[in-house]
Amino acid sequence: MVRYSLLRLLIFFAFLLLLWFIPWMRHNPIPLVIAAGALSMVTSYFALAQQRNQIAGRLAERVEARQFAREERDRLARTDEDDEDDEDEG
Length: 90
Fold this sequence. Notes:
Blueprint: H1 2-20, H2 23-26, H3 29-47, H4 49-77, H5 80-89
Helix pairs in contact: 1-3
């Protein structure tokens, strides 16, 4: 995830430097930063799609593993009395 963030920052600063060479942008820092941000966002969306999908997959695996561990812990914590109560109610 750190690699992805660093690549996004690198793209942003590359656009910032590139746009800085446009004379009227050099004297207007707010439009310069906004334009660099917009261009880097679009570029990152397409250029870093593979890295983003890998991160999303790893996060999904971690969530599933935590859910499984929680369900297993809850299943082991159930007592015989809880099972009997469920049978009586159903």
